[in-house]
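> example.struct
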């Protein structure tokens, strides 16, 4: 399954890549591989809100490990201020989920508080 991680670097992290420019995708790929996944892409944004986006293909049973690694190992480095990981579906893979939502809506499986 595809997962998207995005986050913000610390000032120290940005200083580090300025002082020693390098392709961090290699480091990220090694970390993802150690968790049983594959790096799909790695992007640097540095736009103020989000500094990087990482797309991985990770077995579903390993995502808990990713969360732990993100929170402990990566953030403990001091280079990353925040990181979040969310599932991502390819558009064609999302259609069955849309159909399920349609069926649940027809069955009134969810009512907004204003519809009670």
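> example.seq
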């Amino acid at each position: 399954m595809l997962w998207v991680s995005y986050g913000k670097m610390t000032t120290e992290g940005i200083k580090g890549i300025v002082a020693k420019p390098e392709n961090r995708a290699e480091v990220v790929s090694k970390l993802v591989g150690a968790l049983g996944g594959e790096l799909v892409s790695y992007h640097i944004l540095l736009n103020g809100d989000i500094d990087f986006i990482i797309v991985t293909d990770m077995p579903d049973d390993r995502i808990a490990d990713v969360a732990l690694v993100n929170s402990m190992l990566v953030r403990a480095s001091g280079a990353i201020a925040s990181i979040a990981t969310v599932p991502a579906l390819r558009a064609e893979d999302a259609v069955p989920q849309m159909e399920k939502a349609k069926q649940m809506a027809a069955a009134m499986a969810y009512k907004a508080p204003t519809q009670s």
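> remarks
The chain has one domain: 2-89.
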